[in-house]
Amino acid sequence: MYTMKKILLVDDEPNIIMALEYSLRKNNYDIYIARDGEEAIDLAEKLEPDLVVLDIMMPKVDGYEVLEFLKSHDTLKDTTQTIIISAKHKQSDVQKGLNLGAKEYIKKPFSMKKILSTVNELLTPKN
Amino acid sequence: MSKTALIALIFVYLGILFLIALFAEKNKGSKLVSHPIVYALSLAVYCSAWTYYGSVGMAAKSGVEFLTIYLGPIIAAPLWIVLLKKIIQLSKVYNISSIADFISLRYGNSRSLGALVTLVCAASIIPYISLQLKAISETFEIVSTSTLGIEGSSVMTDSTFYIALILAIFASFFGTLALDASKNRTGVMFSVAFESVLKLTFFLIVGVYVTYYVFDGTTDIYQKASLGLDLNQLSTINGLSGGINWYFSIVLSFLAIFLLPRQFQTSVVEFTNRKQLKTSIWLFPFYLFLFNVFVIFIAWGGLLILGEQANADYFTLLIPLHFGDHWLAILVFLGGLSAVISMVVVSTVALSTMLSNNLIIPYRFIKNLTRSKSFKNEKTIKNIRRLCVFSSIILAYLLYALFDPKVSLFSIGLISFLIIVQLAPSFFIGMFWNRGSALGSKVGIILGLILIIFTYLLPFITEYVTGYHQFVDEGFLGIESLKPYSLFGIDLLNPVNHALYWSLLVNTGAYLILSVIKKGNYRERNYGEMFVNSEKVVELKENAYVWKGEAYVKDIQNILLRFLGQAKADKALRVFRKRYAVNLEEKLADARFINFSERLLTGAVGSASAKILISNVAKEKPVSLVEVLKILEENKETISVNKSLDEQSQKLIKLTSELKSANEELRIQDQLKDDFLDTVAHELKTPITSIKASSEVLSDGQDMPEELQHKFLNNIIQDTERLTILINDILDLEKMASGRDELNLQLQSLNGCIDDAINGISSIAERKKIEVGFHSSSSIIIEFDYSKMLQVFTNLLSNSLKFVPEDNGKIEMLLEANSEEVIFKLKDNGKGIPEEDLHLIFKKFYQSKNQNFKKLQGSGFGLAISKQIVEMHGGVIYANPNIETGAELIVNLPKCIQ
Asked: Which one of A27, A93, B70, B679 has the largest count of C-beta atoms within 10 Å of its C-beta?
């Protein structure tokens, strides 16, 4: 049976979440939302999402911590892929994110098209 | 020769002298005028009418004792040269123009000491001039009437007064040709040298005349004299007491050669180059020797021919007149006149310089002179000096009029010497002992004078003037040990030497004791050190300064202008600047310049007045002896090279450290700027991201329900607003931080502003059911910028609204004032501020992690901007750390904004 892929959106900016949620739901993805890193870790553990769309700059627990959690988690490290969306543009930031296991690093302000194509690509099974 | 003819002759002679002086002035550079022999001959001004006439008189009375007056200088010639060199060095460095200047400078530029020395010199010179007048008058009589001068008869007629008058007028114009007292008077000195030649020549002529013409040579006279006269008395020294007396007399003349103002003038002030000293060391003793060669023979001859009744002083005239050789008598008279004129001119010039520089100008005229222009100053000072010359001679005449004609020339001369010798301890000891103090000097001189009066003048006067003998015979108040001619029983010495012994003993004793007991002030010590170490001072010139001061170059220039005139002042400045490569722009004068100027002025108005003038415009700072010694230790070259090297390396070190800290500052600022830009960029990108995402969604969403469309559109609007606020806040903050923003201050009610802020957020507060209260004891009216403070209060309220719980949120505001400031407190019962964030909340971009979720209505700049605004008003804003629950923010504003 075809199950919808689960995407966990993590960002503290509600307006961005809203746009992402609408766009991705329209593309048949199951969407879950976390407002900060703490929530994200909670939900990731519970849901075991296929993809996490992760902002870095968040209050309390930031995106890097989430990445680290995911990377060191027994199951999640295999099941869950991560896309980083961030306003931080420096090469060092990008490198850091990728080193922590993110599959893609998309810079804010992003184009919705780009997000969709990246998500589709990552979640399409390759044989 | 008739009186009128003789007077005419005198006028002609004076005219010749004037012409000679003018000639010399015009030809200053010529070989003749600048030959060192001129200097050496001018020293012969030592030989006045006293020598010319009086020595013969003395020889006739007491034999070879007259030689003592000339042995002093002869014996002392080598020592004299050494000492003179030192004195000359010091005088040239300090532009010293008289012995009063010299002594006063040595003792810390003491005005009072300078005045005292001047008075001593006056007391010495004026009687001496009287002596000259007496000689002129008597010789005038002798030559014009051919009267055989019988001892005791001198006819005092009006002619003496006229002679005195002529002399006075001549001297006052002749001598004061130049203002700068320390510059040489070539013309005058040349004519003095001329007169020296003349008087020696004529004296030798009459000597030769008597010895070889009247008699048949020296052996002839000697034989005749040994037959007819009591030679023993006349050619030997009488035992021990004679020997001691000789000794003292030689000492007396040795000291006089330095201290007599006319000697100081010719040997020191008029000195220009070393060759002069070399020539003088043999020429002057030789001159004295020549002068005295025939004295004893003339004396013996006179006694043999004219007998003991004749006035021996004038044998040189009487003998030729006796044989009818009038022409020779006239020559001799002219010789005597030369001796008188040169002595009078040089002495009065020296005296007038001293009177004007050390007495009149410092004590009376300083104020007037500083106000008027330079040429006027020059004229005034010249006139003051002329008046001094004139009055000295007239005064001398009056003194002469009081004399008992019986008094011999020789004894008057000795009084003059005795008085001037009182300067000896201060003068000589001061050059080798730096401890000598002004007080010691003054007291020593005064005591010495008192002793002279007691042991010589008083008995002289009582015996010869009043005829009261008891003082001499029985002593002061009848006390035997206080007999004026033999104090405490010492009766070995003749009256002059007795006076000399006691006065010098007491003078020197007082000087030494007082100098040891009480140290002089720093100026005395420093000048003392300079004088003792004179060679170093000469090398160092302006670098050897005694006191430091702060003064403006302008002020000093003005003084130089007033007293030296435009040309000389400019030249002086040029010289100085060239020597020291001084910056033309520099407004403050350095110590060297101040000392340089003081010395220049000393030449014009004397050291005391120069000091006064300079101290009027310079704030004096004492220089310690240690500094002085340090200065003297170092060589001049090394000093200036060291100094400049030192300065440069100091500058370098300073520059390097400045550069380092500037660099560091730049780095930090760069880093901060980077951080700031990063954060700003980040903050701007977030709402832009949202706007873009929402817009994209909208443009793609054809089948989006309307409600959702509205939502997205609202989001876009919201984010746009956020963006705008953010950008504005950033710009505001930058504007305030860079100081471009200005407060629009108005005197108004702070309460009203707070009320308005409350109104602004009232709808939000109502919606959230948050209670907002404001208490104020009175209406506080101060100066502030309304819109900016509104921003602050609104910001504080908004923050609280974000953090207090809804429904039972409470915000309390309190406004009160004390004498100096206004205090505003805002307390809420919200989440409070974590302790570590108490200061951080005022930083840019700070946004609490603990905010109620409903993200961020603020820009993160609110408190940062509020802080900037409050601080622009001169106030402070801070969070109260001692709050248990909730948060309290406090704003203090000063009542008066600076």
From this structure: B70
Of B685, B697, B704, the CB nearest to A108: B685
- Is residue B86 a contact partner of residue B431, using CB atoms and an 8 Å limit? yes
Contact B686 A13 (CB under 8 A): yes
For chain B, give the mean pLDDT. 82
Tokens of A121: 């690509």
The minimal CB distance from A15 to the residues B681, B690, B847 is found for B690
Distance between CA atoms of residues B426 and B107, nearest Å: 9
CA distance A33 to A40: 8
SS3 B790: helix
Residue B406, Cβ density class (10 Å: 0-12 exposed, 13-18 middle, ≥19 buried)? exposed
Interface predicted TM-score (ipTM): 0.93
Q: Chain A window 44-103: which residues touch B at a Cβ cutoff of 8 Å?
A: 57, 59-60, 87-89
Whether residue B853 lies within 8 A of chain A, CB to CB, comes out as yes
Query: How long is chain B?
Result: 898
pLDDT tens for residues B571-622? 877 877 777 666 666 777 777 778 888 878 877 777 777 887 887 777 777 6
Residue whose tokens read 């008869």: B153
pLDDT at site A86: 92
- Looking at the complex, report in whole angstroms how far the Cα of residue B684 sits from the nearest Cα belonging to chain A: 9
Task: Kindly list the residues from chain A whose CB atom is less than 8 angstroms away from the CB atom of residue B853.
Answer: 35
Q: With CB atoms and an 8 Å threshold, state whether A87 touches B689.
A: yes
Give the pLDDT band of residue B25 (cuts 50, 70, 90). confident
pTM for the predicted model, two decimal places: 0.58
* Number of Cβ pairs < 8 A linking chain A and chain B: 72
Interchain proximity B685–A112, CB inside 8 Å: no
Let me know: does B427 contact B103? Beta carbons within 8 Å.
Answer: yes
Phi/psi at B285 (nearest 5 deg)? -60, -40
Q: Is A14 an 8 Å CB contact of chain B?
A: yes
Which residues are registered as beta bridge partners of B548?
B621
Checking if the pLDDT of B149 tops 50, the result is no
Does residue A67 surpass a pLDDT of 90?
yes
Q: What is the dihedral of CA B275, B280, B281, B286, to 10 degrees?
A: 140
Write out pLDDT tens, residues B406-465: 666 667 778 888 999 999 999 999 999 988 889 999 999 999 999 888 888 877 777 666
**Is some CB atom of chain B closer than 8 A to the CB atom of A108?**
yes
CB-based contact, A20 to chain B, within 8 Å: yes
Which chain B residues are within 8 Å of A89, Cβ to Cβ? Answer: 681
Is it the case that residue B638 has pLDDT exceeding 90?
no
**B254: nearest Cα among B427, B94, B115:** B427
Measured CA to CA, the distance from residue B551 to residue B563 in angstroms comes to 18
Q: pLDDT tens digits, residue range B322-337?
A: 888 888 889 999 999 9
